Each structure stands twice: as C-alpha cells, then as structure tokens.
Amino acid sequence: MPVDMVCTPMTTPTPHLTLDGWLDGPIEIIPAVDVLGTSAVRLHQGDYDAVVADAGDPIALAAAWANAGASRVHLVDLDGARSGRVRPEIVAAVATAIGGVKLQASGGIRSLADAASLLEAGADRVIVGTAAFPDPAPWVEALGDRLIVALDVRDGQVRTGGWLEGSGFAVADAVARCLDAGVVRVHCTAIDRDGTLAGPDLDLVASVAASGLAVLAAGGVSDPTDLETLANAGAEAAVVGRALLPH
C-alpha cells in the first residue's frame, strides 16, 4: 500500500491484553506497536516478508497497552523506516488513543523537520537511526533528551534503512560517536533476536550500557524473567513486542 495512506482502524478485534507480571519488574517495560500498512505486526528478525504475529488495528493495540497500565508506548512505522517518509497521522491517532500515556515514535525520520512533525503530532521522544550517522551532534543540539538514537545491530554492525542497509559502523564506533555528540539514550536492538522469543542479547546490552549511555533494550525478550537479566546487564528499560501478544 502507499506509505502516505492514512492508518485507519481494522475490523480485526484486539483481544484482551494484560501486562500482569511485567509491570512489577526491576526496569520499565515499553510495549511495542509496529505498523506495517494498516496493521500492527511483529516481524521475524526484521524480515518484512516474515510476519510472525498480526495484532490488527495498531491504534486499538496501543490503547490496549495504555489501558493495561503501560506508562509509555513504543511506536514504529515500518513502512516509513524503509521508505524514509514519516506518517505523522499515525502518531497523532495513537497519541489521542492512549491519552496521557507517553509515546516514543520512530520510522522514516530523515530530517529535523521529520522529527519535529512527529513531536508536534504527540510523541514526546523520537528514535532516529539512519539519519543519526555519521554525526548525531545536530540531532542532540536540536532535540536534547527528546532524542533516542537507534543502534540496530546484526553481526556486530549497526544497520540502517529499516535494517536493510549497512551503516559502515561497528557497535563500538557508533557508541563512541553517540558519546562524543552528547547522546543520552539509545534504543539497542539485537536484530537476530527480534521476533524470536529467544532471549535478549545480554552481551550486546551490557557492552553498550557500560559506556554510560542509557539503554532501551529490544530483541528476543520472551517473558518477565528477562527483565531481571536485562537490569543486571545495565538496561534502563525493555521494549517488548511479540512476547506480550498471544502466541
């Protein structure tokens, strides 16, 4: 479908969802809502052709997480991530649906104007990956702590362009650039674990957290016990998708 199509509610009902067992963990849990077309989906290892879960209407899903007690929702526009075009209308619809719950948004941000459009639509933080390298400094200067830099990692290398392209930076190099630029917080995804329920990449999380960056860890989380191990590895929060859906 065209990436500029407005995301309208699907007819698929959202099942009753709960965060029981997750909210009392040692670190914050941030439910993920990944949007492909007009559906909330989970991909296997970032493969756009491998949808392993379809949760229907993303707006209803985000509202369900808010109603379940989430303090923040993580919204990803997968179409935007690979096309380089933001869809502020999705952000606005989700922000309205979740009321006072905070919203961090990503997907398609290639310019400061793109970031501003998502903040104006209702996000309180934006996640920037592709456009943050090689130099995150202009983003830090413009956005301050509203910026999260995405470190999407496969085989020790940071991926960009919806995880479809190489950035040319090893994790350590990307971390160093973030520190030099004054980045406070990163969203660190182990791509090979994402959508697999295979457990988080604790070595990756620990290596990034050891730098002093605040780490939102993603990829492979399977149950609430993973929150303890992620906390021990130094994560500030866990972004969780597939593990929260019926499976």
TrEMBL record:
Enzyme Commission no: 5.3.1.16
Keywords: Amino-acid biosynthesis, Cytoplasm, Histidine biosynthesis, Isomerase
GO terms under biological process: L-histidine biosynthetic process; L-tryptophan biosynthetic process
Listed GO CC annotations: cytoplasm
GO molecular function: 1-(5-phosphoribosyl)-5-[(5-phosphoribosylamino)methylideneamino]imidazole-4-carboxamide isomerase activity
InterPro entries hit by this protein: Aldolase_TIM, His_biosynth, HisA/PriA, Isoase_HisA-like, RibuloseP-bd_barrel
Predominant location category: cytoplasm
Reactions mediated catalytically: 1-(5-phospho-beta-D-ribosyl)-5-[(5-phospho-beta-D-ribosylamino)methylideneamino]imidazole-4-carboxamide = 5-[(5-phospho-1-deoxy-D-ribulos-1-ylimino)methylamino]-1-(5-phospho-beta-D-ribosyl)imidazole-4-carboxamide
Localization (cell): Cytoplasm
Keyword Amino-acid biosynthesis in annotation: yes
Keyword Ubl conjugation part of the UniProt annotation: no
Pathway(s) of this molecule: Amino-acid biosynthesis; L-histidine biosynthesis; L-histidine from 5-phospho-alpha-D-ribose 1-diphosphate: step 4/9
Pfam families found in the cross-reference section: His_biosynth
Family: Belongs to the HisA/HisF family.
Protein name: 1-(5-phosphoribosyl)-5-[(5-phosphoribosylamino)methylideneamino]imidazole-4-carboxamideisomerase
Annotated organism of origin: freshwater metagenome
